[in-house]
Write a structure and sequence with these properties.
elongated; disordered C terminus; DNA-binding; mainly alpha; homodimer; disordered N terminus; 0% strand
DNA sequence: CCATCAATGTTAACGTCGTCAACATAAGGG
DNA sequence: CCCTTATGTTGACGACGTTAACATTGATGG
């Protein structure tokens, strides 16, 4: 690739700008991290990169496309953290909890970024294919871990893995969202809730739990 | 109240406008419902009410204040639905599930409104007092129901009620968020997940569940 | 080696938005 | 009846996203 050789060797404006798309993404993410999504302005980001305010349009269709790319990056990073937690945790019981902790930690450490990923900034109807791939990839990490735990006999093996995964995802996502929204402000609240939720989750989902309807229970279906 | 007498008797512009604040709120909510938050424009809403574009500033500090009021309305409505589900469901086991269903149903039926309530549109630092009151009121409905179920012996009575409530809230909020975000698109997916989640939640939270650490479990604390 | 072309970046401008200041009008109390 | 206050309007400003027209650079092929 002769085009990249120059770019790789001399970082000082080899091509028109080098790799502007990458720079735009990084700068956008930095701005979002520092000052929130509302502070993200095409003009300011261009100015900060020493480039015209419309240069962005050669690399992204519009501002929404930039945000979609930021969200995609987020899912990629999240996926990475989840896999790392699973692998480094020993792919067992503890690793599963570690995944949950890693998930919430990612959200709490990058609240604005997390909001871009889930806050309705991306279009819903024709979902961006790359974003879909990355988001599903992250989700698949959870499904895979759950399937492994099912095979190991530590999680209910009869249940639909995807349904179980959605359950866990919803729980963790809910905690993350509440935390990001500032609903769990007291110090240690997030950790306490995480610990409790995973304890309850486990005794509800693990093989050793009594899954038969409780005596006298006949009314749990949605009204 | 002589001022209101005219307003009540003749709907055609009794005062300057009648009750503009109320009309602004309703129109804003209608717009959000119909076309989403992004479509909400101070100019358009004023035009739609046959009023100047800046008339709003006599009733709200700025656009954010309007959105905060919309969010407050949302929590009030949600609170109402939750209480209704609890009361009409018989304040028991089934009623608790009905509350969960009502919660998710509210979010799915009013996705944009729900997003205003939780999407980070309201300021975090000096939280609006009225909003806080309404949001906490809705949450208290959940806490109250859980406490009643604890007293009735159907829910783990040893656990901190607030912690339990946060757990349930996070779960339901997570499902609602995923649904609103379009992550549960297949028909019936939300209902299926809700049913499963509440079954698992119950067998994890109910008195009859084995709450002791599972045999061989020694590693559930966050890594 | 150079002409051509596509890729990339710039400039100027437009329409819309939230917001403010100055002004207008109506309601109600002294 | 006048004066104060609440309410609504007009005009304007700066910032924003976006587009069209233009400029420049890198690569490609004869």
């Amino acid at each position: 690739m002769p085009a990249n050789r120059n770019a790789a060797r001399k970082p000082r404006r080899p091509y028109h700008h080098g790799n502007l798309r990458r720079a735009l993404l990084d700068e956008a993410l930095a701005t979002i991290r520092a000052d929130g999504v509302d502070a993200l302005t095409l003009r300011s980001i261009g100015e900060r990169l020493g480039v015209s305010r419309t240069a962005l349009y050669r690399h992204f269709a519009d501002k929404a496309a930039l945000l979609t790319a930021v969200a995609t990056e987020g899912f990629r990073a999240l996926h990475e953290r989840l896999v790392a937690a699973w692998e480094e945790g020993g792919r067992g019981d503890a690793a599963f909890s570690a995944m949950g902790v890693a998930y919430v930690h990612f959200a709490v450490a990058n609240p604005s970024h997390y909001r871009v990923m889930f806050g309705g900034f991306v279009e819903r109807e024709p979902r961006d294919p790359e974003l879909t791939v990355e988001a599903e990839g992250a989700f698949k990490a959870l499904v895979g871990a759950l399937a492994a735990l099912q095979r190991a006999g530590v999680m209910r093996s009869g249940d639909d893995t995807l349904l179980m995964a959605r359950h866990v995802w919803a729980l963790v996502h809910g905690i993350a969202m509440l935390a990001v929204d500032g609903q769990l402000r007291e110090p240690g609240a997030v950790e306490t809730l995480m610990r409790y939720a995973f304890e309850r989750l486990r005794s509800g989902i693990a093989t050793d739990a009594r899954s038969q309807p409780a005596p006298g229970d006949n009314s749990l279906s949605p009204a």
